[in-house]
Write a structure and sequence with these properties.
The protein is an alpha+beta fold. 27% of the residues lie in helices and 32% in strands. The chain has one domain. The chain has a six-stranded mixed β-sheet, with helices on one face. Helix 1 packs across helix 2 and helix 2 crosses helix 3.
């Protein structure tokens, strides 16, 4: 019997990024779901959102395009991708094709927008 693996990409949305980034995922048709984490120790604030799919069906290209377009829309936005081997890439300045190469090797994506939409 052939087994298929599932890819899971975890996003942590900080500051004012939640509404705009999730809207961008929705507009691109990328399904995502909220994750709730309980801890007995202090944790960094941030909303956890997860995208998961059978590895062959993971929408890497769509996710990469959303990341790049979202960053380019306002200069106070940043996306940091942490790979399985601990390397951190700041997505600002990378093309969607380059971001797409990092995503399958990543386990965490931090999404930050330092200003609310009204302050653009």
């Amino acid at each position: 019997m052939e087994t298929e693996s599932v890819s899971v990409l975890e996003f942590t949305l900080y500051k004012h990024s939640e509404a705009s980034f999730l809207r961008a995922l929705d507009e691109a048709g990328v399904a995502h779901s909220r994750t709730v984490i309980f801890s007995t120790t202090p944790q960094a604030t941030g909303v956890k959102e997860v995208i998961s799919a059978v590895s062959d069906a993971m929408p890497w290209n769509a996710i990469a395009k959303v990341i790049v377009a979202w960053i380019e829309a306002r200069n106070n936005r940043e996306v940091m991708i942490t790979t399985d081997d601990g390397k951190i890439f700041h997505a600002k300045g990378y093309s969607a094709a380059e971001v797409k190469e990092f995503l399958p090797q990543s386990y965490s994506v931090m999404v930050i927008d330092t200003k609310p939409d009204e302050e653009s």
